[in-house]
């Protein structure tokens, strides 16, 4: 982990893999097979890529029941507390349809309608990500989506892990497709004999999932093309190096491509944090992954002032930003670009990942400059409502026709004028 002095020559951006031509061709072939072969194509591809022969594509009631037998009460309590916190937060995001009426009788408004179907992709295999399920399913449910189809790749025994199944059951998800990769995305986007076509696909995945989501965008909506996880820790003289190092490693252990960065005004803190990272790495179970992340995509930048440090943070536009400084609240107004902002030493990034309530599906790779966390809004659509009275229409008809003719659209102008003449 290099310590770098910030100056005008330091580049803070990084280029991420967008998929090789071979990967893109493979994804297109997978999508074609699912569209042509439907359920059988899904089964064939699951056997090919996951080594699993599936008799049934969807999780059975017996599998749900079995999962609870293998799940301990302490873990269930933690899940239920997290579900409650996440639901409470997302309920505050609900928007209402609205209508205004003018004195001339004009009525204008906006109608908010939930999507009919949402598809949630959850990474699987040996890994279990109950937090991904909660963060994608809860905003969809809160928005009013009635049909949620979850999909996750199975283990070698053709089943999903108990943590995944119990979390889904606690949320009331009853349709779980046992498939992953580009084939699962294709099934959600186009539908098969047993998989309904959805309106939107959300959830993270590997490069093949990302490429598949990009390929089907337009056929369906998607949340984002998520890149590797990122964290930026903003530090000053008051920062505890052991806290900072632990938080940097909490992101580094996700993936070799994850980015863990500190920006600090103190070279002393920079050096102590670097040493702490090396110490804490020693007995980390996912040491190889975290070590590769820190080596290739980690850095500590030293700024001459807090203003310079904040400027660097805004340029990085990180997925996660921790303000581990003396007075984080005072600095909040200067932060323009970040997916989630964690204030103070008690608000470590995992608090947001699992329990606090705000969504942890966040913009990555600098896209926090223009995009936001997943929310209830992502599972609704808005329709404009327009109702003109005769009085209002006649007052503005000539202006409407004039603008239409500016654009060379004579039929538009005549559609207004024919009403102004009172013709039937």
UniProtKB/TrEMBL annotation:
PROSITE patterns: HISOL_DEHYDROGENASE. The active site is at 319 (proton acceptor), 320 (proton acceptor). InterPro entries: Ald_DH/histidinol_DH, Histidinol_DH_CS, Histidinol_DH_monofunct, Hstdl_DH. Zn(2+) binds at residues 251, 254, 353, 412. It comes from the Bacteria. Substrate binds at residues 229, 251, 254, 320, 353, 407, 412. This is Histidinol dehydrogenase. It comes from Salibacterium salarium. The gene is hisD.
